[in-house]
Design a protein that fits this description.
The structure holds two protein chains of two kinds. By secondary structure, chain A is an alpha+beta fold. Chain A is built from three helices and ten strands, in the order αββββαββββββα. In chain A, helix 2 packs parallel to helix 3. Chain A is elongated and about 90 Å long. The chains are: A alpha+beta, B mainly beta. At the A-B interface, helix 1, strand 1 and strand 10 of A face helix 1, strand 1, strand 2, strand 3 and strand 4 of B.
């Protein structure tokens, strides 16, 4: 009997040891940053040369009573992002022009954020059954945790492409996604913009 | 995966309960070396694994029973760009490949009753494989139940009347399955542990 007990304890011990060794995953928040790019294989980037870029980045659209309001990213964040996009395009041989100067391409950045909430609650209970009128007592406990992911999208489209829905299909899109922190540090997004151009060599026209 | 392991533990405990002099129960630590498609996915040796065996001796030198194991391969891939056609995705990846071989097996013991007792064995059954590729906040999970074979060689080194040191090498081969994981899943495991029961 004692020997069997040792065997059982041994088996449990080994199992716990193995479970404790189960591999972990990401350790830092920027480990989760990803950059996705896609381009239209039919599109001839070499035949184009100019682009237009807005001065602000839209992060939300609010529609109230039929009125549409654009919500923009704060300049302190938006300006370095826009400057980075412009620098990269110019380094690849593109020339920036105004939107009213018939640009070959229109580049539109947009920011999207999405928050996922985890919500759980449980009841603690206490029974004071000795006294009449007392009973199960349920003070509820709630826990809420959340994370927010942010995505910066950059779309590059030829505004002259004719389509039945008056919209141009993007010739190039880039999406950079990561978990947002409250640090106000945009180094991660600037690094992601660098990466998006690095993995898109077809944008080089010079 | 932990649930599977717990189930395996529970099962091993049951087998411990029905131990008698005519059976051998083995619990071993299992190191695994990936081969084929598993190796393409995770190139690193796995130091995370466990195996359980129960064999009933139908002849003094022939044991018939079952073999279960769990091996997990893991690799953290550095920042890299993965390109498919006209799309590219850059980021870090975490790759996990879990394998749970479940076999009915026969062992043939060459020198029963002696200090060193070599054996050869063959298992037939299935390998459950689960592959996870984690990137950003997402995981791609691919699973397969592969029909499998498991040739084994090893030896038992007798420490006391009922306890032997168990050393064995196994080739776990799961044939191509028509499910999410298309390719054959295979790896070699080296098992070190103890065998309980009198030969």
């Amino acid at each position: 009997m004692k020997r069997n007990l040792y065997r059982i304890l041994g088996a449990i011990g080994v199992a716990l040891l193995v479970m404790g060794c189960y591999p972990s995953g990401p350790e830092y928040i920027d480990d989760l940053d990803v950059v996705y790019t896609k381009f239209d294989e039919q599109f001839d980037f070499q035949s184009k040369g100019t682009f237009a870029l807005p001065d602000a980045i839209v992060v939300d659209v609010k529609i109230k009573n039929g009125d549409t309001t654009w919500v923009y990213m704060k300049d302190v964040y938006a300006l370095p992002i826009l400057a980075s996009i412009e620098d990269h395009l110019q380094a690849q041989g593109w020339e920036r022009v105004g939107i009213d100067q018939n640009p070959d391409m229109v580049v539109t950045p947009a920011g999207i954020s999405s928050t996922t909430y985890f919500y759980s609650y449980w009841y603690d209970w206490w029974y004071g059954g000795w006294y009449p009128g007392w009973g199960w007592y349920y003070p509820p406990y709630y826990t809420v945790s959340s994370y927010t992911t942010g995505t910066l999208m950059i779309a590059m489209a030829d505004p002259t492409v004719d389509s039945p829905i008056n919209r141009s299909q993007a010739a190039w899109i880039a999406a950079m996604s990561g978990v947002l922190t409250s640090s106000g540090n945009i180094d991660r997004i600037l690094k992601a913009i660098d990466q998006s151009f690095q993995q898109s060599p077809y944008l080089k026209i010079n | 995966m932990k649930k599977i392991l717990l189930a395996a533990c529970a099962l091993s405990l049951c087998t411990v309960g029905i131990l008698n002099a005519q059976s051998l129960t083995s619990v071993t630590y299992s190191i695994a070396f990936p081969t084929g498609d598993v190796s393409d996915f995770v190139g690193k040796t796995s130091f995370r694994g466990i195996s359980f065996d129960y064999h009933r001796l139908v002849q003094p030198n022939i044991g018939v029973g079952v073999s279960f194991a769990w091996n997990v391969f893991y690799q953290e891939k550095g920042y890299d760009t993965y390109t498919v056609d006209n799309a590219s995705l850059s980021g870090k990846q975490w790759r996990y490949s879990n394998h749970v071989p479940m076999f009915a097996s026969v062992n043939y013991y060459l020198k029963p009753g002696e200090q060193i007792n070599p054996f050869v064995g063959m298992g037939i059954g299935t390998i459950y494989s689960r592959r996870n590729t984690d990137m950003n906040l997402y995981t791609i999970r691919q699973e397969a139940w592969n029909f499998g074979l498991q040739p084994t060689i090893g030896f038992l080194y007798r420490g006391s009347d009922e306890t032997s040191v168990h050393v064995s090498a196994r080739y776990n081969y799961g044939f191509k399955a028509g499910s999410e994981l298309q390719e054959a899943q295979s790896y070699i495991s080296l098992n070190l542990g103890f065998t309980f029961g009198r030969m």
